[in-house]
Write a structure and sequence with these properties.
This protein is mostly helical and about 170 residues long. It has helices at about 5-15, 20-30, 35-45, 50-70, 75-90, 95-100, 105-125, 135-140, 145-160. The protein has one domain. The chain contains nine helices and no strands. Helix 2 (about 20-30) packs antiparallel against helix 4, helix 3 crosses helix 5 (about 75-90) and helix 3 (about 35-45) packs across helix 6 (about 95-100).
Length: about 170
């Protein structure tokens, strides 16, 4: 069940208008993709610093007012999705802390999130329409690829060596 299906379920359940889905999906993507989301949740969980996440919340709150005026009540309903998403990121911070320490992964995530935010801006202004949500899996999977390849490479080296000792890279 994707975000678009969730938006449709919420629209039918709450009786939203024709722009409900667009507002819901746009707000979910905009408020969940970006460096302040990841870094704010990690800082909150690992260092007990709420400043970055608090600033992001303030910026999101102001943005949501203008988005709700343009896209309707779907933006308001997306707050539940954003709360759950950021709560999961904060809860999984121990696992995700390795991402925050790798500057290359953070750089790739920031660049990809920036392109997605630019596409959202072009969608909202009506200049060009992009299927923004279709690109979100690239944002989440791309930083994981080097970790997965490295893990399987280490397993492969261990199997090939046959001694149970890790080979040097």
């Amino acid at each position: 069940m994707g975000v678009e299906a969730l938006a449709e379920w919420a629209r039918v359940s709450l009786g939203g208008d024709s722009r409900f889905n667009e507002g819901f999906v746009t707000a979910c993507v905009l408020f969940c993709i970006g460096p302040m989301t990841l870094m704010g949740c990690l800082q909150d969980a690992l260092e007990r610093k709420i400043e970055l996440l608090g600033l992001k919340s303030l910026l999101d709150g102001v943005s949501s007012i203008f988005m709700a005026a343009a896209l309707g009540v779907g933006v308001l309903v997306s707050a539940v999705f954003v709360l759950v998403f950021q709560g999961l990121l904060t809860g999984l911070a121990g696992f995700l802390s390795g991402f925050a320490k790798d500057e290359e992964l953070v750089g790739e995530s920031v660049a990809c999130g920036g392109v997605i935010m630019l596409a959202i801006g072009l969608n909202i202004t009506g200049i060009k329409s992009f299927p923004v949500f279709c690109f979100c899996h690239r944002f989440s999977l791309r930083p994981c690829l080097p970790l997965g390849v490295a893990k399987y490479w280490l397993v492969f080296q261990r199997v090939v060596s046959g001694s149970g000792v890790w080979l040097d890279s």
